[in-house]
Amino acid sequence: MTSFWLKAIISGLLVAAASALAKRSPAFGALIVSLPLTSVLAMIWLWRDQTPPADIASFVQSTLWYILPSLPMFLLIPLLLRRGVAFWPALVAGCGLTILLYLATTALLSRFGVRI
């Protein structure tokens, strides 16, 4: 259980640092969070937990397929905020769009035999 808490603390500190940096420099904060730190940390944790390489490879490939449908969220939320929509509704709309695109991506990929 100590390993879990260590992972949680390290991961949480990275997110907290990125949000603190974003207050001072939105562009630099955005650069930090745009890095695939979460994915890289997850890969490191999986490797450290002696996960078989094939399972890590599957995780990384699935991550790619889930990144693509999440990108439109980063267009929709700023668009809505600039048009006067409040933060929470804009965030919910962006997350809702992402969920719909996840479902569509999963369905589309399954037609081509790709299982994520």
Overall description:
With 116 residues, the protein is mainly α. It is built from six helices and no strands. The protein is flat. The model has no long low-confidence stretch (mean pLDDT 91).
Question: Could you outline the blueprint of secondary structure elements for this entry?
Answer:
Layout: H1 2-24, H2 26-34, H3 37-48, H4 53-70, H5 73-82, H6 87-111
Helix pairs in contact: 1-2, 3-4, 4-6, 5-6
Keyword list:
116 residues; 84% helix; mainly alpha; 6 helices; 2 domains
Number of structurally distinct domains: 2
Largest sheet: none
Compute the number of helices: 6
Mean pLDDT: 91
The poorly predicted ranges are: none
Strand content range: under 5%
Written as H for each helix and E for each strand, in order along the chain, the element string is HHHHHH
E-strand count: 0
- The chain-level structural class is mainly alpha
Give the N-terminus to C-terminus distance in angstroms. 28 Å
Give the overall silhouette.
Answer: flat
Classify the helix fraction into a percent range: over 70%
Rg to the nearest angstrom?
17 Å
Q: Could you provide a short overview of the structure?
A:
With 116 residues, this protein is mainly α.
